[in-house]
Amino acid sequence: MKNEIKKEFYIRLLLITIFGIAMGLLEAIVVVYLRMIPAVKEYYILPWAPHFPSELLFTEQIREASTIVMLAAFALLIGKKWWEKLAVFLWVFAIWDIFYYVSLYFLISWPSSILEMDVVFLIPIQWYVPVLSAIVVMIGFLMSSFYIFKKKCKLS
Hints:
Blueprint: H1 2-34, H2 38-41, H3 54-78, H4 82-108, E1 117-121, E2 127-130, H5 131-153
Antiparallel strand pairs: 1-2
Helix pairs in contact: 1-4, 3-4, 4-5
């Protein structure tokens, strides 16, 4: 019985991970296309943009908020109890963000270093940090999520 529960857990975690990877790839593709728009290209100088074009800033903020809403809705649909919803959200958020950077690297060879600066969020203001910082936070999300799953699902 316990092996069946563990097997089901790992299958679900794999599917959640695949969803996060797909979202990260999709987000990276959107950013690649964004960087081709003349109004953005003029300001979006790699590795970071000191002034995102004001005519697109609100649209970008809505895109970013929509992504978070999608991740939260996914977690609410997948999780059964509040702790599982939280763990799923942290897990899929981390996978999405990590694979966003992995995808950008494979699509446009950026970032060339994990020490490059990036705009990690535009809500409520533009947050600039090294890519490494974002990755460290996401590893923390993964560890927190797995800890919740391990304690609550008694995976030991």
